[in-house]
Amino acid sequence: MTLSEILHATYPLPQASLDRLLALAEYVELPQGTLLFRDDALAHHVYVLQRGLARAYTRRADREVTFWFSFEGTVLVSIRSYTEQAVSYETIELLEDSNLYRLNTHALQQLYQTDLHLANWGRVLAERVWRQTEQQLIARQFRTAEERYTDLLQQSPHLLHRVALGHIASYLGITQVTLSRVRAKLKLR
User: Fold this and answer.
1) Fewest C-beta atoms under 10 Å: which of 94, 117, 123, 172?
2) Number of C-alpha atoms within 13 angstroms, CB side, residue 19?
3) Residue 47: which of 78, 71, 75, 24 has the closest Cα?
């Protein structure tokens, strides 16, 4: 997908507004393991993932808890820094070498002040992040580990080939041992 296509997928923009947004975009190639956002720092950018894979996680005691994965064609944002200009509560890490576009958050916020279409684009972006978080919370509260794993297989089957099982188990809210049991049980069916 091109940058224009990815931005339009978030919210359709008239050409003049799209051009303003494209003018902010800086193309970057970053290696696997790069931390785009840290849970102890204010995020100053929004990223558009053209090629690659990322995960968001937080640290809890002695482990990392993954709460989402993002693939090609998504916008990566630390929602707390984006909406409140406060320190991030998550770390976002690239799981593969990636091609991205970087947008300065301050410049983006200034565009929102002058362009209603871009302000709506930013609002829809925040709404999508909140909706994704809500869906994950509901799934963890009301669905079994087996149901969550089956959902993952249906929604993102390619994930199993691109992400370490430890990250998948963490995302599902289970241990790797439980994940192995769930996978073995489903293979028997």
Assistant:
1) 123
2) 3
3) 75
CB 48 within 8 A of CB 29: no
Contacts of 161 (CB under 8 A, 6+ apart): none
Which of 72, 93, 83, 73 has its CA nearest to residue 129? 83
Contact yes or no for 66/174 (Cβ under 8 A): no
List, for residues 66-104, the tens digit of each pLDDT value.
988 999 999 999 888 888 888 888 899 999 999 999 999
Q: Is 92 exposed, middle or buried (0-12, 13-18, 19+ CB in 10 A)?
A: buried
Q: How far is CA 146 from CA 139, 149, 175, in A?
A: 11, 5, 12
The number of CA neighbours under 13 Å toward the Cβ of 98 is: 28
Contact between 88 and 46 under an 8 Å Cβ cutoff? The reply is: no
User: What pLDDT digit, counting tens, does each position of 58-67 carry?
Assistant: 988 888 889 8
As a residue count, the chain comes to 189
